[in-house]
Automatic annotation (TrEMBL):
Catalyzes the Claisen rearrangement of chorismate to prephenate and the decarboxylation/dehydration of prephenate to phenylpyruvate. Keywords: Amino-acid biosynthesis, Aromatic amino acid biosynthesis, Cytoplasm, Isomerase, Lyase, Multifunctional enzyme, Phenylalanine biosynthesis. PANTHER family: PREPHENATE DEHYDRATASE P PROTEIN (PTHR21022), PREPHENATE DEHYDRATASE-RELATED (PTHR21022:SF19). Its main location: cytoplasm. This is Bifunctional chorismate mutase/prephenate dehydratase. Pathway: Metabolic intermediate biosynthesis; prephenate biosynthesis; prephenate from chorismate: step 1/1; Amino-acid biosynthesis; L-phenylalanine biosynthesis; phenylpyruvate from prephenate: step 1/1. It catalyses: chorismate = prephenate; prephenate + H(+) = 3-phenylpyruvate + CO2 + H2O. Residues 292-369 form the ACT domain. Residues 6-100 form the Chorismate mutase domain. NCBIfam families: CM_P2, PRK11898.1. The keyword Cytoplasm applies. It comes from the Bacteria.
Length: 373
């Protein structure tokens, strides 16, 4: 007969007791972290003697979130675990100083969704009507940072954002990539079979075209200024008994109290939009960075070739090249370039110096951590 002790069966009451005990420990540790964050604020204020203090450190937060994902052992996925820590960090930072974040509005847009993903929910949200208004809000100091879309994996670059950097003094301080999931939404008191119109932004209608052609071929599609506006119109129409549907995201669905008829209706499941965080400060190296440049090339044969050749020769990985009219001369162009690395890295400094010798103008728009979430 074995002398080993038999394992005590894990009953539901015992498991709930364990969960309650773990929750209590987690709560104690979160508050301990929050008190540490408050002390960080006190130290920063004391060291800088009342001058403008920067509490938000993009490179530090990127490093913390990367470590969270590296040491994660499951069963929660890496991204899910990082999102939990993202919100803890957001709440702790708000104790130091709540940040006001401007974004391309109105409330409920994917840009707001990206802002919440990057900064957490403990921020003061400031929706703006246009991309240039986001830039002005940050430039004036009315907002700490701004969030603007820069490119979509299916619809391409957002030219208005690129053009806003020409005369702006703002820096790119970060980036966030958001998987774009579109949902067909209606007011709770409306029946789907009664829908007469589907409202959404023109890009969202384009991104769901094949799905709409298959399942809603005879319903009129109406392009409006944003998905959030489409959701608001659907909610307003529903209160008066009109059967209007909207295509929008999760935030708009919750904000306007709508019901999902169908979820994730985008034609491409990998549909992703990249957003930029703009602010005033240069961001130190985080260990895994990206740099963006604006370059005005000289009008001479081989000008673009000689610019790009520097990247290859020094082993710097260029990840994006966009061309825009310069507006300074007829048929003149400027180039927007993204590459892997921080502008303070040795190889990157050599490339930038060579570019300055060969181009009419080189403007470093910013070095910033590669998107973690």
């Amino acid at each position: 007969m074995s002398n080993s002790k038999q394992a005590v069966p894990e009953t539901l009451p015992l498991l709930r007791d364990r969960i309650d005990s773990i929750d209590s420990q987690i709560q104690v540790l979160i508050n301990e972290r929050a008190r540490c964050a408050q002390k960080v604020a006190e130290v920063k204020l004391a060291e800088q003697g009342g001058e403008a203090v920067v509490f938000y450190r993009p490179e530090r937060e990127a490093q913390v979130l990367r470590r969270v994902m590296e040491r994660n052992e499951g069963p929660l996925g890496n991204e899910e675990m990082a999102k939990i820590f993202r919100q803890v960090m957001s709440s702790c930072l708000a104790l130091e100083k709540p940040m006001r974040i401007a974004f391309l509005g109105p409330e409920g847009t994917f840009t707001q969704q990206a802002a919440l993903k990057h900064f957490g929910k403990s921020i003061i949200s400031a929706p703006m009507a246009a991309i240039d208004e986001v830039f002005r809000e940050v430039e004036s100091g009315a907002a700490n940072y701004g969030v603007v879309p820069v490119e979509n994996s299916t619809e391409g670059v957002v030219n208005h954002t690129l053009d806003s950097f020409r005369d702006s003094r703002l820096k790119i301080c970060g980036e966030v990539e958001e998987r774009i999931h579109h949902h067909l939404l209606i007011s709770p008191n409306i029946h789907a079979e009664d829908v007469t119109h589907i409202y959404s932004h023109q890009q969202s209608l384009a991104q769901c075209r094949a799905w709409l052609d298959r399942y809603w071929p005879h319903v009129e599609r109406v392009a409006v200024s944003s998905n959030a506006e489409a959701a608001r119109l659907a909610a307003d129409a529903g209160r008066s008994g009109k059967a209007i549907a909207a295509i929008a995201g999760e935030v708009a669905c919750e904000l306007y109290g709508l019901t999902k008829v169908s979820a994730n209706i985008e034609d491409r499941p990998d549909n992703t939009t990249r957003f930029l965080i703009v602010g005033h400060e240069d961001v130190p190296q985080s260990g895994k960075d990206k740099t963006s440049l604006l370059i005005s090339a000289k009008n001479e044969p081989g000008a673009l070739y000689h610019l790009l050749e520097a990247f290859e020769r020094h082993g710097v990985d260029m990840t994006r090249l966009e061309t825009r009219p310069s507006l300074m001369s007829r048929w003149g162009y400027i180039f927007y370039i993204d590459f892997v690395g921080h502008y303070l890295d040795d190889a990157c400094q050599v490339v930038i110096e060579e570019l300055r010798e060969r181009a009419s103008e080189v403007k470093v728009l910013g070095s910033y951590p590669v998107a973690v979430l």
